[in-house]
Design a protein that fits this description.
Radius of gyration: 19 Å
Distance between the termini: 41 Å
CATH class of the largest domain: Mainly Alpha
CATH superfamily of the largest domain: RNA polymerase sigma factor, region 2, helix turn helix motif
Number of helices: 8
Largest sheet: none
Helix content: over 70%
CATH topology of the largest domain: Rna Polymerase Sigma Factor, Chain: A
Structural class: mainly alpha
Order of helices and strands: HHHHHHHH
Strand content: under 5%
Shape: globular
Number of domains: 2
Length: 192
């Protein structure tokens, strides 16, 4: 963003008034960060693409109702993306449970179009997500915002509704626990 580019608050206000171009600028500015955030939460590039679209569709629908607390729309968009992913995962679990109840096995998606690097990225990300899933929810959220998506501690605090020091403490605890889990895996020879 150059000094001549409008800030996110200005763009959001324009979008709230129906300015599709302003919303498009916000999309261009933040889509990559939201996409990467969704991948980190799902370990799937295809799912990340779907969640990116759902996040911005929801943002477009709520643009007139939402007022940005901070200069950047990114922390709010990342929170929306986190909720979109969480809701989709809950919905998938319900569908799988219903399928199992009636005795049908779910169809296995065809991943033939994915390249080898993406498969490897997904495998590693799934391993990391298994480790992160052991963390308390509040630590997972702080880690995802501040470490994975590089949101400032102050912005994360505003989005999460807690003090900046609490965000820092949650991130620190999460990192320590993940390092301990990794050391235990290496010690037991389970690390690949």
């Amino acid at each position: 963003m150059t000094s001549e580019d409008p800030d996110d608050r200005s763009l959001w206000s324009q979008a709230a008034g129906g300015g599709a171009h302003a919303f498009g600028v916000l999309f261009d500015r933040h889509a990559k960060a939201v996409y990467n955030h969704c991948f980190r939460l799902t370990a799937s590039w295809a799912e990340a693409e779907d969640h990116l679209q759902a996040t911005f569709l929801l943002a477009w629908r709520k643009r007139a109702e939402v007022r940005l607390e901070r200069e950047s729309a990114l922390p709010w968009l990342l929170t929306v993306a986190t909720n979109v992913v969480r809701n989709e995962q809950r919905s998938l679990l319900r569908r799988l449970k219903n399928l199992r109840r009636v005795g049908e096995e779910p169809a296995v998606p065809d991943h033939a179009d994915l390249v080898v690097e993406r498969l490897d990225d997904q495998r590693r990300m799934k391993e990391l997500l298994r480790a992160v899933a052991r963390l308390p929810r509040n630590e997972r959220e702080a880690l995802a915002l501040c470490v994975w998506s590089e949101v400032s501690y102050a912005d994360a605090a505003a989005v999460l509704g807690i003090a900046e020091g609490s965000v820092r403490a949650r991130v620190s605890k999460a990192k320590s626990k993940l390092q301990q889990q990794h050391r235990e895996l290496v010690h037991t020879g389970e690390d690949r």
